[in-house]
Amino acid sequence: MGREFDHCSVSRCEIIEFDGGVVNLPDKKARSGRVYMMSDYYDEAGELVKKGENFIKFYERLVRFIKKLAPRREVKAGGYTFKIYVSDGVFELYRGGEIVKFY
Questions:
Q1: Of 11, 16, 9, whose CA–CA distance to 42 is shortest?
Q2: Domain spans, the chain
Q3: pLDDT in tens, 15-49
């Protein structure tokens, strides 16, 4: 639109990606969320560069917190048993038959 925008490289910047899960009750499906970061990358010279220690520790604390909110539980779908991280509310929907598929 006639303006230039700066951009951040996920691999080089201290960025944590987060995509929250989605519950679709009419279809009885729940899509999992994701939290992700890259702890190191290769620079222009091909050298491995590790991101800041405080950033990595923050990410690890964040992941532990999320796992407390959404502990790992067994769910069955399509004849298979899976262990996934799922919150209490979504797990109750699954146990009540309101969710039958996780993707």
A1: 11
A2: 17-102
A3: 999 998 999 999 999 999 999 999 999 999 999 99
